[in-house]
Amino acid sequence: MLDRMLRVDHAGEYGANRIYAGQMAVLGRTSTGPLIQEMWDQEKHHLSKFNELLAENRVRPTALLPLWNIAGFLLGASSALLGKEGAMACTVAVEESISEHYNSQIRALMERDPERYTELLQIIKEFRDDELEHHDTGLEHDAEKIPGYWLIKNAIQLGCKAAIYVSQRV
């Protein structure tokens, strides 16, 4: 269970980093750039921590990192090509998916052995709170104003669910 959790969380944070990299490639020199950079900096911290946890626990990352490298960047860049609202809609969709995923992991660890997983629970809760903050930031910065918001959000979340499923296993 721990291997799967660490593997998928690392993959998710890796993907999030690539999404923000794609958004910065398009919007980095606009007024939205600093906002995206701030969220990206938090994601860089998350990824660094999961890199440490993988090494400490001798867990291999998902074999799909090369795919998530390309897919994440393309998702970020393509959403940003739709403007600030597109980038923020992507942020809302992804961060909502990740925070729900983290909540399910918190429940599983609490049911399993909360004392054994105290440190991991603390990390996941902190990162979940960061993801919820990013989600709210996206909403505050006009995510819902993009035409087709519901469709964009649901399509991205379907992709997130698929990525979570395969990253746990491969």
Automatic annotation (TrEMBL):
It is found in: Mitochondrion inner membrane. InterPro entries: Ferritin-like_SF, Ubq_synth_Coq7. Its EC number is 1.14.99.60. Pfam families: COQ7. Its main location: mitochondrion. One of its GO terms (cellular component) is nucleus. Coiled coil: none annotated. Keywords: Iron, Membrane, Metal-binding, Mitochondrion, Mitochondrion inner membrane, Monooxygenase, Oxidoreductase, Ubiquinone biosynthesis. Its cofactor is Fe cation. This is 5-demethoxyubiquinone hydroxylase, mitochondrial. GO terms for molecular function: 3-demethoxyubiquinol 3-hydroxylase activity; metal ion binding; oxidoreductase activity, acting on paired donors, with incorporation or reduction of molecular oxygen, NAD(P)H as one donor, and incorporation of one atom of oxygen. Fe cation 2 binds at E43, E95, E131, H134. It is an enzyme of class 1 (oxidoreductase). Pathway: Cofactor biosynthesis; ubiquinone biosynthesis. Catalyzes the hydroxylation of 2-polyprenyl-3-methyl-6-methoxy-1,4-benzoquinol (DMQH2) during ubiquinone biosynthesis. Has also a structural role in the COQ enzyme complex, stabilizing other COQ polypeptides. Involved in lifespan determination in a ubiquinone-independent manner. HAMAP family: COQ7. It catalyses: a 5-methoxy-2-methyl-3-(all-trans-polyprenyl)benzene-1,4-diol + AH2 + O2 = a 3-demethylubiquinol + A + H2O. One of its GO terms (biological process) is regulation of reactive oxygen species metabolic process. The gene is COQ7. Binds 2 iron ions per subunit. It comes from the Eukaryota. It is a peripheral membrane protein. Fe cation 1 binds at E13, E43, H46, E131. Belongs to the COQ7 family.
